[in-house]
Design goal:
- The chain is an alpha+beta fold.
- The strands form three sheets. Strands 5-6-7 form a three-stranded mixed β-sheet, with no helix packed on it. It has a two-stranded antiparallel sheet with strand order 1-4. A two-stranded antiparallel ribbon has the order 2-3.
- Helix content is 43%, strand content 12%.
- The chain folds into two domains: 70 residues, no CATH class; 119 residues, no CATH class.
- The protein is elongated.
- The chain has seven helices and seven strands.
């Protein structure tokens, strides 16, 4: 079931919802719009118990294609201090090595593998992933290929890395980081990190 990525940040067009009765709701605050919807549902006899909130969130996502949403059943990974250390170490290793980011063809190949990977999940920190992607794009100096678009906000559940960022880095840099940190994440058997 789809749910909005971030309930604390107002989408660009505001929170919008059309109830099955045809009544439209708009507000800049998520809590306020949900209160309005609850009161309307109570007034017209629609259920306000059980999973009605999840159903409203799912319909909100369907009705607002520009709203960033994710499948609530897909696993999320909360970024931990170790994940921040991994990213910082990767940046340092990339700069020290002097190796260029991988080319668009390799990014596309990796993005395709990651998109189909069972260890592809979401980053619970809604700032961490986009920040990693931004820093990576600045280091890379070019726009990611279209295949990387569906990786935005997603993480490798094995290592915690932002997938949209990770697909850019040279394999040797990423493997050196694993060695420096003394870890061997449990990558999927089909992962390009195992090549």
């Amino acid at each position: 079931m789809l749910v909005p990525d971030d309930l604390r940040t107002t989408p660009p067009s505001g929170w919008r919802y059309v109830e099955e009765t045809g009544v439209s709701f708009t507000h800049h605050n998520y809590t306020a719009i949900m209160s309005m919807i609850r009161e309307h549902r109570r007034a017209v006899g629609l259920p306000i118990h059980g999973d009605w909130i999840e159903q409203v969130k799912a319909r909100m996502c369907e009705q607002n294609p520009s709203m960033r949403c994710h499948d609530a059943e897909v696993k999320e990974r909360v970024w931990l201090a170790e994940d921040v250390m991994r990213f910082a170490t990767t940046l340092k290793e990339k700069i020290v090595s002097g190796e260029p980011m991988v080319d668009d063809t390799e990014q596309s190949r990796r993005a395709t593998i990651c998109a189909a990977c069972p260890k592809n999940g979401y980053i619970a920190c809604r700032i961490c992933g986009p920040l990693g992607e931004l820093i990576t794009s600045l280091l890379g100096g070019h726009k990611p290929p279209p295949e990387a678009n569906e990786l935005h906000g997603k993480a490798c559940l094995a290592c915690g890395c932002s997938l949209a960022a990770k697909i850019n880095y040279p394999l040797s840099v990423l493997q050196n980081v694993d060695a420096q940190l003394g870890t061997q994440p449990d990558y999927d058997s089909r992962c390009w990190m195992r090549e």
